Every structure is written in structure tokens, then in C-alpha cells.
Amino acid sequence: MPRAGQGADESATLAIAPSPYGQTPTGIYLQANTLDDADLKARLKRLEVELNSASPPAAQRPSSRAAANQPAPTPRGWVQRLKANALIPVYLLAIPWAQEIVDQLFFGGRWNLPLHPRSLEGIPGIFLSAISHAGFAHLIGNTIGFLIFSWLILAKSRRDYWITLMVGWLGGGVMAWLLGPSSVHGLSGVVYTLFGYLLCIGWLERRVAPLLISMFVLINYSYFIFGMFPTQPMVAWWGHLFGFVLGIAAAYRVHQEPGRAR
Length: 262
Description:
Mean pLDDT: 82
Shape: elongated
Oligomer: single chain
CATH class of the largest domain: Mainly Alpha
Number of strands: 2
Radius of gyration: 35 Å
Order of helices and strands: EEHHHHHHHHH
Strand order of the largest sheet: 1-2
Number of domains: 2
Number of helices: 9
Strand content: 5-15%
CATH architecture of the largest domain: Up-down Bundle
Structural class: mainly alpha
Distance between the termini: 56 Å
Helix content: 55-70%
């Protein structure tokens, strides 16, 4: 800082006293050199900026030792990931298969868990109707579609799969309870949710892998679309339609997440 009482005609030189610790300057003293106050303040300001940029606080400097001690990531192999994903829908299907086996062996096919629309006794069906079926033929038909569509989504994203599954399972149950014309049970509404997601996600993301998956489903499983029309009296086509619409909504939902690839 300038000493009090210095005149404008005095001379001054600007010097930096080295720190006793050898790094950060600790003192600044001035001697004369025909500088007015404005120039002196400007030079001091520039000097302060240079000192701050040359020696950042120790708390902001990365610690090489801490970085070296951090464990390196250990990515799972592609085969292990594939096996883990492949088993997820198998474990889920164990629930309806166990229910159907017990039903056929001990109850003669009378232990059903249907969803009854707009009634208090039908509320448990929102959660349980998907694991109940009208025999092994019904269950086998839903098992095939559920496995194929689940594996296709898991090949892309496990998180997308769980979101879509929950939207179809719980959202489909709520819609069937609110809007359904009659009682219903079975996993087909969830299957149609997976189907709707797969058809839509490729066109939303416009990336190679999702587009290939959507094209594969469209070419090989487009006949599922006919299940959303009232062509068979014993088929709850409206449950399929609800599931399909929810699948499209789930695709839009995951596509709109922050940081999602566009």
C-alpha cells in the first residue's frame, strides 16, 4: 500500500517480498517512480489477479494421493450382464406360474384373483390380477410375449424396463379398475405395455440400436395390434388397449428425462 504523505513528484519502485515459506508473496512495498494514484491502483489490481491465479487455494487443488487411492471401476463383463438381465423376467414369471400350479392342483382352477371394476373388493386386483390366469394355455400365451419383449427392452436399458413394467402393471390395473367394463385378469395388459414401448422408443430416440429393436418388433409382432380390437368375445381387448397406450406413455416418459440422448 502507498505510504501516507508521499507526493506526486516522489519516485517509487514496485517490488514483491518473497514469503518465508518460499511460495506465496507476503508483502508488497513501494518506492518512488512518478506514478499517480490511478496507475498505482491499476497495477496493484493486476498484481493481485496474477497472484491469485498463480497460487489457487490448497482446498481447490486436487490431491493426487487421494485420486490414486480411489478404486478403479470394475465393469461387469458383457456375458455376465446378459445373463443377469435374462433372468429378471424369468424370476418375475415364477410368481404367476406358482399361482397357476397351486390353483390347478389344489383348487381345480377356481382360485382366481380378478380385478372387479369400480368396486372395493376389486381393489386388490389392481396389484394381483396380473398373476392370475384362466388356465395354463392362457398363461403360456402371455409368458412367450412377456419373455421376448422383456429381453428386448433389457438389451437396451434395465432402468427403462422397470419403469415400463411398473407403468403397465400398476397403471394398467388402475385404468382397468376405473374404466373397464367387466372383470379381468392376466398378464396380457403388461405384455401390451412392453409392446407399446418397443414400437415407440426407436422413433423417439432415433438411434441405431433402438430403431433396430422397434423395426424388429414391428415386422415380427405387428399382429399384436389386432388384439386391441373387439374381435374375440372372451378377450379383454380394452385391457390390451390400455396397456398399449401406457407403453407409449412410458416411452415418452423415459425419453424426456434430463440428460437423455436425443
